[in-house]
Amino acid sequence: MSGLKPEEALSVEQDLERARDRLCTRSDVQLTYLVTPVYGQLHLAAEHWKILDEEVAAAQRSRSPLATVIEFVGLDAGYVSNRAHGMAAPGGASSKQIKEQDRIAHRFYGA
Prior knowledge:
By secondary structure, this protein is mainly α. The chain is built from six helices and no strands. The mean pLDDT is 80.
């Protein structure tokens, strides 16, 4: 038994399926992301969202391997930016999409 709740196990399976199709080996961040625990995730305070937003923006500007990893894991830069500026989510996002982006962002920040 993995010790994961069914919802957590499903998200790990989805992450692994995504990684099987697209794995960035030019950076160790994606591999670190995949082994970062999904349970007991840290809480991201406002300053954490700002740090994450700055890192995501810098990676995208420089088109570094980290930008590739951000795309591959499914982290939405617009969502991160909104959270960094105190907004909950982009307009029209469902609660399922918000929960998924939160999960990805928390795990990515932990990695």
